[in-house]
Design goal:
Elements lengths: L7 E4 L3 H12 L4 E4 L11 H17 L8
Parallel strand pairs: 1-2
Helix pairs in contact: 1-2
Length: 70
């Protein structure tokens, strides 16, 4: 029986989770990366908060050495 994977979800955007999600994305597989809200997130509108959370996750993924995003 052959199963085709259409999308991946990774829980936790730490060092390992961010790297796994980056590998899925680099392979062309749609991936959702989920993590908790950063503790230093400032209160604000949903749009501002969501943008901050995305920026936090991307920055965390870029700090991994060697970088998994290419």
């Amino acid at each position: 029986m052959k199963i085709s994977i259409q999308k991946a979800v990774v829980l936790g955007a730490g060092t390992m989770g961010a790297r796994i999600a980056a590998h899925f994305a680099n392979a062309g597989l749609p991936c959702v990366l989920l993590d908790i809200v950063p503790p230093d997130l400032k209160p604000g509108g949903a749009r501002v908060g969501a943008k901050s959370v995305r920026a936090y996750g991307i920055e965390a993924a870029r700090k991994i050495a060697p970088c998994g995003i290419f």
